Amino acid sequence: MNPVLEQYWPFAVFFVVAMLVAVGGLVVQSFLGPKLSSKHKFDPYECGLDQMDSPHKPYSLKFYVVALLFMLFDIETIFLLPWAVGYRSFGWESLIAVIIFSGIVVFGLWYVVKLKVFEWD
Question: Which residues contact residue 109 at a Cβ distance below 8 angstroms, ignoring those fewer than 6 apart?
Fold first, then answer.
């Protein structure tokens, strides 16, 4: 047998045993678990209180748009952080690149504000 593949035998045994335990637990649960159902079993938990609204009420799309925009501008911070830590050793080219990148992001923010995405009607 290949000596490189011999190193992976413990991992393969661990993986097979883990799969057997997972599948075995599901099989045992399906035979031994309770099969009783009631109306209250499928109600969402509301701290012991009766439910006020339907859990299937649609949310405004603006919640998701604002969340995506937050992630976008948060990722901008992640891209700027390495540059901010070592800006002295990067030179003028990196400063120009960061200014261009920040300009594009600020233009995007201006465009989003112009579209009135953050206004709640």
Answer: 73
C-alpha 73/C-alpha 107 separation (Å) is: 12
Q: Residue 60: helix, strand or coil by DSSP? A: coil
Rounded Cα distance between 60 and 47, Å, is 25
Look at residue 43 in the predicted model and tell me its pLDDT: 66
| pTM, 2 dp | 0.49
Q: How far, in Å, CA of 9 to CA of 15, rounded?
A: 10
Average pLDDT over residues 13-20: 96
- Residue spans of the domains in the chain: they are 3-42, 61-114
Whether the Cβ atoms of residue 31 and residue 20 lie closer than 8 Å to each other? no
Please give the structure tokens belonging to residue 87: 């800006």
